[in-house]
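Subject: complex prediction, re-run

Hi both,

The earlier run crashed halfway through, so I resubmitted it with identical inputs.
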Amino acid sequence: MRIALDAFGGDNAPDKVILGAALAVAELDVEVILTGDEKIINSRIRQLGVQTKNITIKHADGIINIEDDPMLIRKSKKNCSMGMAFQLVDSGEADAFVSAGSTAALVVGGTMLIGRMKGVKRPAYATLMPGINGYYMLLDGGANVDCRPEMLVQFGVMGSIFMQKIMKVDNPRVGLLNIGTERGKGRELEQKAYETLQNAPLNFIGNVEGRDPIANLCDVVVTDGFTGNVYLKTVEGMGRFMKSSLRELFSTNAGTKIGYLLSKKGVKNLSKKTDYREVGGSPLLGVKKPVIKAHGSSDEKAFKNAIKQAVSFCKVIQEIETGIAELSALKEEN
Amino acid sequence: MRIALDAFGGDNAPDKVILGAALAVAELDVEVILTGDEKIINSRIRQLGVQTKNITIKHADGIINIEDDPMLIRKSKKNCSMGMAFQLVDSGEADAFVSAGSTAALVVGGTMLIGRMKGVKRPAYATLMPGINGYYMLLDGGANVDCRPEMLVQFGVMGSIFMQKIMKVDNPRVGLLNIGTERGKGRELEQKAYETLQNAPLNFIGNVEGRDPIANLCDVVVTDGFTGNVYLKTVEGMGRFMKSSLRELFSTNAGTKIGYLLSKKGVKNLSKKTDYREVGGSPLLGVKKPVIKAHGSSDEKAFKNAIKQAVSFCKVIQEIETGIAELSALKEEN
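This time it finished cleanly. Structure:
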């Protein structure tokens, strides 16, 4: 398995990307192709003292930034570190793609350069989020600002297969994000999607409210990309609130500082539970090849886990294609 | 000032409602009219040993539940405890309304029984939410599933006046909830609302993302009722996650339990910061009289603070009307 890894994506590039690649080739049965400025990568590899067995470099010019128009990935930036990784996957030189760079550019590149799977209306940015008792998947996290009901149903099918096959969740429960649990709640989008989801080949449990996925009342939560993006950034904001509150809590006085020392294990457990590094990255579901977005602040462990996830993802691309085909067939029957 | 208080609204009714009324008349210059079954209220007043000076009772039959069709507040349930409180405000026997009962029924009753202010397109359910450094206001929290851009602008004007006059925030910063901070982001709703907000008589700071209000980067955040409701329930879900994590953190072992004892002050500070009881309730903005929704799990302190908020609210109803009139005049000029 060969993974194209954007060496210049994320806040800690290229060092943590290179170290992540080194961890991956040491622990997993993979080859990693680092894309980006060859001179810089080689110099950092030497400085970091990294073993290069199963690591190759594909030279690329420049970087696409978060501030850049994501469409540039198809044009003037097509030979940048992320663009080159897309080219490698498109040409078959690599089997999967991992980057911690611009999410918007990754969505454009995945959709336009790799291409949608047959039958898929729109690929979804599928984020894995920590709940009280484990991870759940939210999609769409922002790739499609406006959605039609049938897109939400496809998101449900793709998310279910990913959660079942890769996250090992048995018969994943799919919820529709809404403003009440009763049938008939929400906008026209939710009302129509509810009906269609009920007849789809997945374990639809009905409407869920904003607080429910966090309590792990479902495994997959489907919504349009606007609501999904607001949702995930709100969760992120509250996560920061939690962290800053904990810091404040333990720094109140000498007593609380000792309290911290005594509670360290609990704090560590909590940190681990909400640690995005454990899960690796978030897949773009509905494109022909595995595309994984690693968290912007990924370190080597996060990159290694994103690569691990990409490897598993390669094995279920076919099943997602089959799932979408079955859904389309069912629709034609009716 | 006379406040109509729904004695049977909320999880802790009627006891905590009665005790809240008692606290209010003792501490504030108000009269409270409790609505609900007279026999039960009188019996609980005796049992609780409450002083009844400045507390009167207006008999009402039954309760409107969260599961009930909210429209019933206009028909078969118009004489229930919440319906009677609306009648008292409508007839002028009371100056303001407080209930911890069904939010949906309160929105219907406020809009239909009390009526919209002149010029207001749609009243908004305006929730006061705790951020890292203090409260901010989110509206609409769910009264209007679909919104037009001009409604969002009215929400901004009304929210600003409330935050300035009642929450004492100088020149409140108004943000538009969106999926990116750049102009042009979002759906057609956000794109159009952005333009209109820029020309409105308020301190518009542009788009904000889900994480921003929590970090107090704005004082008023405007959005449609669908997105707003998902947002506030997500914040609630993460708040519960925070609490359960803290509990777990401190119960890991004997050391962490001692850690808790030493950190108690910090935990209390944090609890106080996120305590909805401090703020009282959430106003329905855009109706002719002050309507306050108290939190469903309000205790006596929360009810007292909701009554206190209702008293302040009475004094700014006129200013909100003026704000809406000025906005309408500005629109006609252009």
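Chain B has a mean pLDDT of 92.

- K.
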